[in-house]
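Try this one yourself first.
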């Protein structure tokens, strides 16, 4: 009986959040090592299906950096990074497109279908919703550094995303974009998710990563900060406290907040039901970033 009562209390705790997010879109950036574990990925997608069934409109943006690096090595190409961006020549772009669009995107869509919801893949091999311009990294001397076929998202076809959500279909976006000349560019999945959240006016952006949020001391898991405001994040970036892999994640959150998204979250996707715990409980388990 106590167990049943505990479950009922959990449902009641979730009720105001279900009411708040009903009919609203939540952009979920899926990446990290959870995508290397197919069982863990399936359980995470089951949580996305739950969101859909309680009236939330999920939009998935996924990366696949580790899988791309593995595929490159198998093809005899050693991955190279410049200022945190993957150097992308044409061969690397072809491999990235095959992995992201031909493998990962199709797998996610198929899994969502098996779990009982409609989903559709949106990417450069079908209906592309991301459009970008060529991007350059900044070197240590402040000068631009060429990173090849890497782009910065400039436009999102939010109309298609809204139409799909309105007919109860989950969009699954792979992060190969079109450039103004009809070519293709590899774009950072974190940044792409921030632009998608901004374009659709999402209620939330949730970035799933391999860390449980932003820490006051980067090497101390116990120093997790549960809530940060936009100004604090900008200060920490300026001080160099946030850099490398965490930087694009918080930049994506800031972009979403600037566009009017109410909250952004960074959570550890490897933890069971982390997505539901962050969205539907009072305390949450990651870092929420507020305007």
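Now uncover the answer:
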């Amino acid at each position: 009986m106590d167990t049943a009562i505990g479950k009922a209390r959990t449902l009641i705790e979730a009720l105001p959040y279900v009411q708040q997010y009903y009919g609203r879109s939540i952009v979920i950036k899926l990446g990290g090592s959870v995508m290397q574990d197919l069982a863990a990925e399936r359980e995470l997608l089951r949580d996305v299906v739950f969101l859909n069934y309680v009236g939330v409109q999920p939009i998935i943006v996924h990366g696949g950096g580790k899988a791309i690096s593995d595929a490159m090595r198998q093809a005899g190409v050693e991955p190279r990074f410049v200022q945190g961006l993957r150097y992308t020549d044409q061969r690397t772009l072809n491999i990235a497109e095959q992995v992201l669009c031909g493998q990962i995107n199709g797998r996610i869509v198929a899994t969502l279908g098996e779990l009982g919801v409609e989903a559709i893949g949106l990417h450069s091999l079908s209906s592309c919703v991301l459009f970008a311009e060529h991007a350059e990294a900044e070197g240590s001397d402040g000068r631009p550094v060429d990173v090849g076929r890497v782009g910065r998202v400039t436009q999102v076809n939010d109309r298609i995303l809204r139409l799909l959500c309105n007919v109860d279909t989950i969009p699954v976006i792979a992060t190969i974009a079109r450039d103004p000349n009809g070519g293709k560019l590899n774009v950072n999945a974190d940044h792409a998710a921030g632009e998608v959240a901004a374009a659709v006016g999402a209620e939330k952006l949730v970035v799933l990563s391999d860390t449980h949020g932003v820490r006051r001391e980067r090497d101390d898991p116990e120093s997790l900060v549960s809530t940060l405001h936009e100004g604090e994040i900008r200060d920490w970036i300026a001080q160099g406290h946030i850099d490398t892999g965490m930087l694009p994640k918080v930049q994506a959150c800031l972009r979403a907040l600037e566009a009017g998204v109410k909250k952004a979250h960074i959570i550890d996707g490897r933890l069971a039901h982390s997505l539901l715990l962050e969205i539907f409980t009072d305390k949450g388990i990651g870092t929420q970033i507020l305007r």
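Discussion: The chain has nine helices and 14 strands. The longest strand covers residues 144-156.
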